[in-house]
Structures are given as C-alpha cells and as structure tokens.
Amino acid sequence: MSIEKLENRIVDKYQREADLFLKEEKKKIEQELEQFKKQKKEAFEIAFQKFLSDLEKEKQREIDQVTLDMERKLLEKKRDILDNLFLQVEEEIVSLDKEAYVDFLKKLIIRDAPLGKSTLFVNKRDHRFFNKKLIDKINKELGENKSIELSPETVNIKGGCIIKSSEVEIDDSIHSLVEELRERIEIDVAKELFKEKG
Fold first, then answer.
1. Residue 95: helix, strand or coil by DSSP?
2. Residue 165 pLDDT > 90
3. C-alpha to C-alpha distance for 83 and 183, rounded to whole angstroms
4. Beta-bridge partner residues of 162
5. Chain-centre distance of CA 186, in angstroms?
6. d(Cα 149, Cα 26) in Å, to the nearest integer?
7. Which DSSP helix (H) or strand (E) runs through 160?
8. 52 partner at 20 to 30 Å CA-CA among 25, 43, 67, 115?
9. pLDDT level of residue 44 (50, 70, 90 thresholds)
10. How far is Cα 31 from Cα 39, in angstroms, rounded to an integer?
11. Cα(first)–Cα(last) distance of the chain, in Å?
12. Which residues are CB-contacts of 77 (< 8 A; sequence separation ≥ 6)?
C-alpha cells in the first residue's frame, strides 16, 4: 500500500470518527430534550423554557468543545502524516543505489561550491565513495575558479554534504534540503493529501 493511500485512509478514518461522534452527541441531546419536555407539566412551562434555553447553550458549548478537540486531533494527525511523508523522502534519497546517490551528491557539489577553495564534509558512510578519482572529476567540472577537497573528518548527518570555504558554509545535508523543499511545497502537498470530499 502506498503512503498516499495509507495517509488517505488515516485521514478518512478520523474524519468519519469525528462525524459519527458529533452525530451521536446531537442525537443524545435531541432525545434528552424530548424526554424532558414530556415530563414537564404546563404549570412549569415558563421555568421549562428558561431551563431549555440554558440547557441548549450548555449543550452547544459542549458540542463546540468536542468539535474543537476533534479538529485539534485531526490537525495533529495531519501534521504527523506530513512529518512522516517528508521523513520518507529523506529515506528514499539516502536509499538510492550507490551510483545514483553519488551522482546526486556530485551535482549538489558542482551546483553549490563557492568560488575559491572549499572543503567537503560528508558522513562516515559516504566518505568511502569520495576517492581521488571522483574528487578530481568534480574539480574538473567545477572549472578554474573553484576547487574542492575532501575533509578527513566526517560529520553527523544522514546524508548529503556540507561545503565550507573561508567565507561561507553551505548545508546540503539531506535533512536541510528536504526541509527547504518542505517550506516550498508543504501547503500544496497538504491540500492534495487532505482535500475535502465533495
């Protein structure tokens, strides 16, 4: 089952539960009012009307509170789904086969390397991919005004890289890249995932 289907099922489930809960609460209120009306005599009509008004307000407050609680829980669930979706994007990138992943890193470095000399930092797993041949190839593609060397030190990131020069530090870690992507597309993704059923 795809994550999109799973997410849709989760959202649909909580929406159905919220609708059912509100429907049952409304039904209970209506039943209570009917029973209450039957039990009262004409002599208490004025008191009954006042009581009915107060009861209606109280029940409305309860319904409003329940609705707010359900909406809050639904929003929390949607946030969890989005968090998991973007975490899955990170995992997908890190799980690419070696050739595709190294090519992805190489393109990042060529795209973002600043002018002058820079030092490349990667995590322990990725460090072994960057042999002299690959670094030379990257430097050749960078041209005359840019060059990069691999740091013997590793960094604690899930994947991607960090490029440091004497003047700038570029965070091209997978987490940072996905967070940037998330900032740009989260609203559209949320609209698509959680669009109302018409």
1. coil
2. yes
3. 12
4. 121, 171
5. 7
6. 69
7. strand 160-165
8. 67
9. low
10. 13
11. 24
12. 10, 11, 14
Closest CA to 157 of 172, 168, 170: 172
Query: What phi and psi values does residue 103 have, to the nearest 5 degrees?
Result: -65, -40
Separation CA 11–CA 131 (nearest Å): 47
Is residue 113 a contact partner of residue 146, using CB atoms and an 8 Å limit? yes
Token pair for residue 138?
């990257």
Residue owning tokens 């004497």: 166
Q: Which of the four pLDDT bands, split at 50, 70 and 90, describes residue 14?
A: low
Residue 43's pLDDT band (boundaries 50, 70, 90)? low
- What does the DSSP 8-state code read for residue 162? E
Name 128's Cβ contacts closer than 8 Å, sequence gap at least 6.
none
Q: What is the pLDDT of residue 151?
A: 94
With the CA atoms of 172, 177, 179 and 184 taken in that order, what torsion angle do they form, in degrees rounded to the nearest 10? 130
pLDDT at position 198 is: 42
What would the DSSP string read from start to end of 98-157? HHHHHHHHHHHHHHHPPSEEEEEE--HHHHTT--HHHHHHHHHHH-TTEEEEE-SS----
CB 33 within 8 A of CB 52: yes
Give the closest residue to 4 by CA, choosing from 196, 189, 198.
189
Q: Are strands 116-121 and 146-150 parallel, antiparallel or unpaired?
A: parallel
